[in-house]
Design a protein that fits this description.
With 132 residues, this protein is of the alpha+beta class. The protein has a single domain, classed as GTP Cyclohydrolase I, domain 2 (2-Layer Sandwich), CATH 3.30.1130. It contains two helices and six strands; from the N terminus they run ββββααββ. The strands form two sheets. Strands 2-3-5-6 form a four-stranded antiparallel sheet, covered by helices on one side. It has a two-stranded antiparallel sheet with strand order 1-4.
């Protein structure tokens, strides 16, 4: 195979470090293994972050997430492990990872984990009027 799973996250400099802006990624093909049965668990990951000095390079993110395919992990554990690694790699102003796991045993599970830089405050929300 030309590419293999990896555990490193490559980064690049934030092109607009003087501004708060949000990067959102939908990752619909995340797979890990159930630690009890060894059967695959499938999830859609939604990653949102406000970068500080660094951004996540997408190919390395894909290969990093691929590395979980053969690992047994509870939903709560894998979600927190991923956000910890990503946040440690880029030290964002804010990061949220939502993991929406497909049904297992008649139960859908969603896990939401957040990390925030201690000094960062989000800008106030802007509500624009709707036009008719």
């Amino acid at each position: 195979m030309p590419t293999q799973p990896a555990t490193a996250i490559d980064t690049f400099p934030n092109p607009a470090p003087g501004h708060d802006y949000t990067i959102r990624m939908d990752i619909p093909e995340f797979t890990c293994l159930c630690p009890k049965t060894g059967q695959p668990d499938f999830a859609t990951l939604e990653l949102e972050y406000v970068p500080d000095r660094l951004c996540i390079e997408l190919k390395s993110l894909k290969l990093y997430l691929w590395s979980f395919r053969e690992r047994g992990s509870f939903h709560e554990a894998v979600t927190n492990q991923i956000i910890e690694h990503l946040a440690a790699s880029i030290a964002p102003r804010f990061m949220r990872l939502t993991a929406r796991f497909n049904v297992r045993g008649g139960i859908y599970t969603s896990v939401v984990a957040e990390r925030r830089a201690p000094q960062w405050q989000p800008p106030p929300a802007v509500n624009l009027p709707r036009t008719a």
